[in-house]
């Protein structure tokens, strides 16, 4: 089994001279293959053909021509449409846990970058795996350049806990005990009670699943408003598993409403306190804090709009061919439709390809998978989506060459 990682920079010029993208990926993988690996049969198992002889140096560098990488039928993703145009587009990849969301998101980001789009790949999943997928350290909550692709590719792993803390601080300053004490002192206890009923502080102490994502995405919106992010024309989100996504969809409305209530209360308080202050002639204004809260609310509204903008956003569902995953994907699409989130594509990942030396286990497994695929084709929620079938490959997808290889198979 080949273990893959990013290609060291010494290899890069050699690899860039190779013409076929898939062969570059294959060479990248083989460069790191263990000595015991037989490159010819390994490459052929991927459908590579017309092997040229091994070149030296470096050792184990082979050039392959891709006559056909066997992929299942119907595997046309419509990548041309995804890549066309320089206006910014957002792709959110989501689905059941472990189906390959990160691999698909990272491979799409690499493909966008290799097609000339300055691309940002963002993980809003509290359990980040972008660093693992790219085999590079991308943690830290800031933009990190990814080594390997042709055009700039940056990654951003949002730390939801840190983002939530920031959110909470803003809230505490505006609606927490400080304001309550202040209001009590001013004889506005009744308003303080109303504010308490909003239970926003409690919500932030024990956040429901999905809240972290909502805050993380609002954090992304905040980032995107800054000029250093204006270069990105493709933004790919690796989102958290389905349950979080579903709750996330209703959260911006909920938070918007909560913040809206707080703002209204603040206005009442502000007019009451300014009346008091005008009598007693003291006190500082709190308009700065209100502005912050207002900005937070505006960002929430943007999150909601972003999710529903058919011109710039698409949610891509990733699944595997099992009854359980298909059922969950069907429910996910129903919910996304209900919330008017645009969905066009469904990636069915990890499909077992037929092989000459078929063992009993594989053939039973494949029959099972075929049944799940039939289920998709007759499912009222899923049958109208573009079906992209991605094979199960016999290696772990890690590092840019491997992602490039997978991306060239999936995103056609
Ligand atoms: N087509 C494929 N062929 C072989 N292995 C794959 C394929 N797609 C994904 N994998 C492997 O499956 C594992 C899980 O993939 P990945 O992390 O992308 O899933 P995920 O849906 O993002 O998981 P999580 O829900 O935990 O975030 C990884 O080890 C990845 O390398």
Outline of this structure?
With 412 residues, this protein is of the alpha/beta class. The protein has helices at 12-17, 21-31, 39-44, 79-83, 101-114, 130-134, 160-175, 177-185, 189-197, 200-205, 211-224, 242-280, 287-308, 323-338, 360-378, 400-410; strands at 89-95, 119-123, 144-145, 153-157, 234-238, 313-319, 343-351, 386-391.
Profile the largest sheet: 8 strands, mixed
Shape: globular
Structural class by secondary-structure content = alpha/beta
Q: Can you count the beta strands?
A: 8
Average of the residue pLDDT scores = 72
Helix % is 40-55%
Query: If you compute it from the alpha carbons, what radius of gyration comes out, rounded to the nearest whole angstrom?
Result: 25 Å
Determine the strand fraction and express it as a percent band.
Answer: 5-15%
The topology string of helices and strands comes to: HHHHEHEHEEHHHHHEHHEHEHEH
